[in-house]
TrEMBL record:
<comment type="similarity">
    <text>Belongs to the YjdM family.</text>
</comment>
<dbReference type="Pfam" id="PF03831">
    <property type="entry name" value="YjdM"/>
</dbReference>
<dbReference type="InterPro" id="IPR013988">
    <property type="entry name" value="YjdM_C"/>
</dbReference>
<feature type="domain" description="Protein YjdM C-terminal">
    <location>
        <begin position="46"/>
        <end position="112"/>
    </location>
</feature>
<dbReference type="InterPro" id="IPR004624">
    <property type="entry name" value="YjdM"/>
</dbReference>
<protein>
    <submittedName>
        <fullName>Alkylphosphonate utilization protein</fullName>
    </submittedName>
</protein>
<dbReference type="Pfam" id="PF08274">
    <property type="entry name" value="Zn_Ribbon_YjdM"/>
</dbReference>
<feature type="domain" description="Protein YjdM N-terminal">
    <location>
        <begin position="4"/>
        <end position="32"/>
    </location>
</feature>
<dbReference type="InterPro" id="IPR013987">
    <property type="entry name" value="YjdM_N"/>
</dbReference>
Length: 112
């Protein structure tokens, strides 16, 4: 019995093969495992200036950011140390001094 990868959309473990495609019965997503492997390798995160970002980098905000559910604002020029890059709409997982843990978009930061 071969071990198949989980669904890239819903992370369901119940995927099955149909020809050269993998199918998820939970969400109905179909994908080619060879193409998915290439897409994962080529993911590159870039800041507002086009510089490549990596885990552990220090970045600076290029725009004032309102904090959802609060009246606080993280000001332009705030340094964020030791970022962690993640998949999703918000690409950066970090901790900002005075504000706590949050997620940022790469388009609002520049590499320090």
């Amino acid at each position: 019995m071969s071990i198949l990868p989980p669904c890239p959309q819903c992370q369901s473990e119940f995927t099955y093969e149909d020809g050269n495609l993998l199918i998820c019965p939970s969400c109905g997503h179909e994908w080619n495992p060879a193409e998915a492997a290439v897409a994962d390798v080529t993911k590159v995160w870039k800041d507002a200036n086009g510089n490549v970002l990596q885990d552990g980098d220090t970045v600076t905000l290029v725009k004032d950011l309102k904090i959802k559910g609060s009246s606080s604002v993280v000001k332009v020029g705030t340094k964020v140390k030791n970022i962690r890059l993640i998949e999703g709409d918000h690409d950066i997982d970090c901790k900002i001094e005075g504000f706590g843990p949050m997620q940022l978009k790469t388009e609002f930061v520049k590499k320090a």
